[in-house]
Write a structure and sequence with these properties.
The protein is an all-alpha fold and 285 residues long. The chain has helices at residues 2-14, 16-22, 24-41, 51-75, 77-84, 87-93, 98-130, 138-163, 169-186, 198-206, 208-220, 222-228, 234-243, 257-280, and strands spanning 249-250, 253-254. It is elongated.
Amino acid sequence: MTTFAMRNLKLFFRDRAAVFFSLLAVFVIIGLYVLFLGDMVMGDLEGVSGGRFLMDSWIMAGLMAVTSVTTTMGAVGVVVDDKAKGITKDFHTSPLKRTTLVGGYLVSTIVVGMIMSVVALVLAELYIVGSGGEFLPWGNLLKVLGLIFLSTMTSGSMMFLMVSFFNTQNAFGVASTVLGTLIGFLMGIYVPIGVLPSSVQTVIKIFPISHAAALFRQVFMEVPMASSFAGAPPEMVEGFQTAVGVIYQIGDGTVSFLGSMMFLVATTVLFFGLGVWRMLVPPKR
């Protein structure tokens, strides 16, 4: 399994275009934020102490969740490529067990997602500090690394299930383009969730990786929130957090940090199980 996973990793990182496009969403979001999103989201925070640090942390937290999706989506492209070239059939006629193949694909997908997410974290921190903010405290940095693992596991399991339905690069490319276009909206990055219609907010709240975005925001924004809202009434703080997707409100209650984590774990197990089942079932002849 390890050898097969290494083969997949080499194929991915050897393709420079695949590596670049897996991080393209990172560059697009940063570019849009620098050009106009930053000014738009800062409109209501003029005069607020540390407002720029606060919103930079907000956008970069969302970027981390997006990266976990786009990088694992790029990594599972190896599965489609093997199918399209008939390499999968060769594997199935070899002594390799199906569990070894599936495990190798999964491991390489998670490893790619972890590596590229750490790269995105470095870029995000450099951007925040370069704009006048501060590096994450060590405790929060460890939390972010843990969230990277969890969000990558969830994203990887979702992408693994998705890729099981595609046999050609063209079909997979179309699906990747559609998902890549929608992902910023599904994370509440381009437009804060509080200004969206309730039906769209519901879709965002049930989309698994949006909970990863909320968790990243809670950690990234802990320090700037304490500074910007020092002495503010709790109602004001909670209203702001709800408006920008730091916490999600369902009915009369809010989803806790642990609640979002459990939702991610549950969806990971679900999609992982379905994806493995799809890949292990022998193809119909």
